[in-house]
Prior knowledge:
extended; two-stranded antiparallel sheet; single chain; 47% helix
Amino acid sequence: xxxxxxxLKSNSKRExxxxxxxxxxxxxxxxxxxxxxxxxxxAMLKMLMDPMGGIVxxxxxxxxxxxxxxxxxxxxxxxxxxxxxxxxxxxxxxSVIVLAGELLKVAEPFLVENMHPTVVIAAYRQALEDxxxxxxxxxxxxxxxxxxxxxxxxxKSSLGTKFMKGWNDLACGIALDAVRCVHLExxxxxxxxxxxxxxxxxxxxxxSIEMSEILDGVMFNKxxxxxxxxxxxxxxxxxxLDSNLEYKKGESQTNLEFMQETDFRKILQLEExxxxxxxxxxxxxxxDLVLTEKGVSDLAQHFLLKAGVSVIRRLRKSDxxxxxxxxxxxxxxxxx
Length: 336
């Protein structure tokens, strides 16, 4: 079998052996040095400019590395470490990069002395096992997750170096209440805490940080589609839809040729009957509120308004999932 042919750029070069190992260590140390000053209680903020031209000031390691564009494979791996730490733990994104950079820095003299990398890796793995054993048996202490004071102490240790440390008590209380709000335990005792899907931060312009609060429910910045619809409904019957409340449009360009004026009226009547049938099916369930991810035509709004039904349209899929979780329902995906 013929070997594959690779076409590379004119400035491409191939490196191997010890030179590559030292190059990887140098790249990892460079990434580590970038955010080293963001670690600890005396951490400094980095000023970043995002692609849209906005200015962000942060000392969060993952947020900083997310904005850095690198080409070196080892540097990309370091950034991936920070991203994984943020997804799995949610804290320590700066510490893990600084620690990884120091481990590689300490290993560099051994590679210079021609020690095989597998020997260095075996020693690090043994050190990892010893560290985990010491932390589990000598340092770790049991924590009662139902004890609010103990949980607040743990959260404060995470927020102590962040910009929110001036509002520690408020931020820690909101974080703890938010996690308990989305916490779910089934009959088998299995706990589910999916903050990525069910906990949401809604930013509203104006006001101060002290006005922040946790809502035991679902919030989205949307208004009803018609001013005459009710905005306050207690204990509503909710219908969640993943379909349009409007007449079907052709998937491709459609041309209609009318020979008489009555033909045009017939087409309009067909569209109106189609919308009326959809609304009658919804009204038959006697809902107080209709939520949909798609659009709602003016005609549908008219029929639903007459029936006393409020409508909110074009909600995000994530918001619909939160509503379904809160009320114990599911989104109807039937195509009318």
